[in-house]
Amino acid sequence: MAGLIRTILLFSACVIHSVHANPLQRIEVSKNVFALIGPMEQRSETNLANNANFGFIVGERGVVLIDSGGTLKGAKAIEAQIRAVTDKPVVLVINTGGQDHRWFGNRYFAEQGIRTLTSEQTLADQQARGDAQMASTSRYTGESWHGTDVMPAKEMVSAVTDISVEGIQLQLIPVGPAHTGGETLVWLPESGVLFSGDVVYMDRMLGVGPQSQHLAWIEAFKVIQQLKPGKIVPGHGQPTDLTGAERDTYRYLRFLRSAVGQLLENGEDMSATSSIDQSAFSYLSVYEQIHARNAQRVFEEMEWE
């Protein structure tokens, strides 16, 4: 009987650990520059809405954090990853977009006296979609949502801005609408590393949602091409180079625009988007769930151009 009880207790401990385990994969992409790679799945109680990528840069006396997580617990999980590398304090949080996991952890860091910063368009998107995203994210994350108090970034820039903090040199580059209503790139010219936010998707199919603007997204990607980064930490998926980003993001966006444009030229209606052969991109995660909807959304946009 005692043996059975010990087995049950051990099993329970394993379950508890798995539920609260930090699902983020930490990768040092350059000296003192780290990517935190989240799972490519829907938000859940287990992943704390950290189903995206984050990052941090360790400076002389402090740390710059890229995106703050999707819940209070998600922010703490990101902080734990930083603490596994350094005990230097976080001094600045930068939000790359208006999607929940980019900024729902802001308040946790702001209450420690840490600055939160983004671009004007990203801030506008946070303010516009915050309530709707809170409703959905709290539903998906269940018990893990408790304690989350959403706060948009407190500071903003309206143009390309050079920032120097704790020996870290970076640029904030607003690129406007793409996957969300306002995306912001974080460029580290010294190391050639770019944190792209949701302008770049790797390994999984990007989503063209109601908040997205696919043509502006293509233009935003061209800014990345001009930078010629050596390494890209995408919004989702593994770190890559420019060739990989072009393959999984830029090529797909241009393909959709061309295919839908041909349908419109032929006088077809939206139902014809089901005839578009997207199988060349079927290697991407969530292809089956999202490819048809992407084509429909691009059709909706192009109808009114």
From TrEMBL:
Coiled coil: none annotated. It comes from the Bacteria. Belongs to the metallo-beta-lactamase superfamily. Class-B beta-lactamase family. It holds the Pfam family Lactamase_B. This is MBL fold metallo-hydrolase. Residues 1-21 form the signal peptide. Gene3D superfamilies: Ribonuclease Z/Hydroxyacylglutathione hydrolase-like. SMART domains: Lactamase_B. Residues 51-236 form the Metallo-beta-lactamase domain. GO terms for biological process: antibiotic catabolic process. InterPro entries: Metallo-B-lactamas, NDM-1-like, RibonucZ/Hydroxyglut_hydro. Keywords: Signal.
